[in-house]
Design goal:
Strand order of the largest sheet: 1-2-5-6
Largest sheet: 4 strands, antiparallel
Number of helices: 1
Order of helices and strands: HEEEEEE
Structural class: alpha+beta
Number of domains: 1
């Protein structure tokens, strides 16, 4: 039987195994680090999406307030507490998205003087009631919230 011996062959036994195990360890650490970064990026993207959905829910509540039939409760006396219309806007989620809802708070500010405001460029000799509308959109069962505020004028005869 023919055996080949290299100089120092006994000293190199297992060196390739140790080097390959070290390379495998480095690759494993890089892979785990990459997976953690991907999970963090996904969480950031989902949180941003939920915040945008909450903002859109608050905007939808204010848009509903400006519709021809807003169906909202408002305080009518100065100094009275704001009235909160809970779940003023609600929408079921689609395609694995969460449900959204928005509460609308109406706070009476003051009554205007006749003709103080112009509508469509014309002065109207009617008094108006001025309110501050606050809409808080939220994700049902989530932590994302968005707050939008708008001034509202209701015309009185």
């Amino acid at each position: 039987m023919l055996q080949l011996h290299t100089a120092g062959g006994a000293r190199q036994a297992g060196a390739a195994l140790i080097v390959s195990m070290m390379l495998l360890l480095v690759l494993t650490i890089l892979s785990l680090s990459s997976m953690r970064n991907t999970n963090l990026d996904t969480k950031i993207a989902v949180n941003h999406q939920h915040k945008q959905m909450a903002f859109q829910a608050a905007e939808s509540a204010l848009f509903r307030l400006m519709s021809p039939e807003p169906n909202v409760q408002v305080p009518l006396l100065a100094g009275s507490a704001a009235i909160v219309n809970e779940n003023y806007f609600a929408s079921a989620g689609v395609r694995s998205q969460p449900d959204v809802e928005a509460d609308l708070s109406m706070d009476y500010i003051r009554e205007s003087m006749p003709g103080e405001f112009k509508f469509n460029g014309f002065g109207v000799s009617l008094t108006t009631l001025i309110y501050q509308a606050d809409a808080v959109g939220k994700i049902t069962g989530g932590k994302a919230r968005a707050h939008n505020r708008m001034g509202v004028v209701l015309i009185r005869n």
